[in-house]
Amino acid sequence: METGIRILLLTALLAALPGCASVRDWFHQRAERRAERRAAEAQRTEPRESEPPQDESAPPRVIEPEVSRRKITVPRITSSNVELGLNYGALSIEDFGTNPVYGITIGYHITEDFFFQAETGRSRGGRTSFETLGGNIQLLTESERRFTYYDLSLGYNFLPGEAFIGRGIAMTNAFYLLGGIGGTDFAGDTKFTVNFGAGYRIVPADWLAVHVTVQDRVFQSSLLGTTKLTNNLEARIGTTVFF
Amino acid sequence: MAHSTSTTRSIPPFRSTECRPEWSARLRKVALASLVLPALLLAPALARARESLQVFVAQPYLELHTGPGRGYPVFHAVPRDASVDVLFRRTEWFKVRTERGVEGWASQAEMLKTVLADGSPFVFSLGDRAGFTSHRGEMGLFAGAWGGANYVSGYASLSFNPQLALEGAVGQFLGRFSNGVTGDLGLTHVIVPEARASPFLMLGVGEVHTEPKATLVQATNRTESMAYVGGGVRIYLARRFFVRGEFKAHWILTKRNRNEEADEWKLGFAFFF
Lengths: 243, 273
Prior knowledge:
Largest interface: A-B, 52 and 57 residues
Structural class of chain B: alpha+beta
CATH class of the largest domain in chain A: Mainly Beta
Order of helices and strands of chain B: HHEEEEEEHHEEEEEEEE
Helix content of chain A: 10-25%
Low-confidence stretches of chain B: 1-20, 38-49
CATH topology of the largest domain in chain B: Porin
Distance between the termini of chain A: 49 Å
Strand content of chain B: over 45%
Largest sheet of chain A: 8 strands, antiparallel, barrel
Number of helices of chain B: 4
Low-confidence stretches of chain A: 48-53
Radius of gyration of chain B: 28 Å
Oligomer: heterodimer
Mean pLDDT of chain A: 83
Number of domains of chain A: 2
Mean pLDDT of chain B: 83
Number of strands of chain B: 14
Structural class of chain A: alpha+beta
Strand content of chain A: over 45%
Radius of gyration of chain A: 33 Å
CATH architecture of the largest domain in chain B: Beta Barrel
């Protein structure tokens, strides 16, 4: 069954790749030839009607206008849609306490409403209450306690506005919603992670932004006996630079 | 310049002749660095300032908003035949500066009505159906399944023409029995680029790195080459967005006796630029 699909796709590809390209060229060429033929015919018919009156009645041109048009080379307009930044905050890892987290974000603004964002961050899981009460029990090794997340999210800006400092300074700002998918490396395993959150962005200069973001990362964990969905809340503050 | 002077002043007077060459070398280095660093930092800004494009208002007036969004209030109107310098573009908004130095944001729709110094219209790439048919590149992210495991993936493509594009994708699959990452590079052929729902076919090669879960026997990490053939459809939504769904059939070229096969299904959001 699967091999069938593969063969079908391969055949379709083989047939379509050169076939479509050449057929489309034919059409283009045919259209061009038709246009050329029409132009040639028009040229053939025009002189008969328009030439004689010009020769007899119209006076010869005295001044030949020689206006050379200025040629303008259009410089490339720089786009500044990419936002790159660092952030720092606190991450509450379910059962493992709240710990500092630092990370990198890179965003791409597609429209004034939507943006894509890739995030990665690192934190460290603390001791569970089981380990604290149990005395000398170690559930995870030191390297397994490292918590690394990375994800891709889609963001939506809502409630855009302006914030003012006194009379003279106005800064654009917006709240945004984030949602996406990614992975989390923790306790010696990588888990499929869904994230959602919200944030606030203030833009003091065209090239600089300050963010405050709260995000929840949800993944399935069976570390403490039962399999359950864990919620890992993160609050962070960061600065980004627009490119 | 002022910066380098202040550096000179902060250096204490020399006490002995022996340490003079070292000090002077260090001083020279600091002076050089203090000159070069601001120059490096300012270079793009200066280049940008010099190269900004001048356009002329051909409509009755050009409205300038306080921010790059439809809701920001209009605070200034540039009259017909006046010029503005285009500083940069952010999404669908242009930051412009008038002759008098007023800076504000003009919308893409308004900027389309301006003209260049020779009277020709100011043209730039738009996020619309025409752009969907013919564009420079695409980027997107997907969720899906890879051989039965959850799959997260992102891709970017570079278009040679409306029909043919070079495409690279990276992904991570997270399953019950194994995790891993994949990387693909191949060609995509869009059959009917003009259509709102346009199908495409793909052919390429890739690499897959698999990490079986530690509880299974013979669990060794492995990296293998693969080849794929696939097909899918992209459906234009609005502005620069489209939905893209695709299927890829992979042949994994293993070092074992039999080659493996893996199917990849995914659906995601993408945009063109």
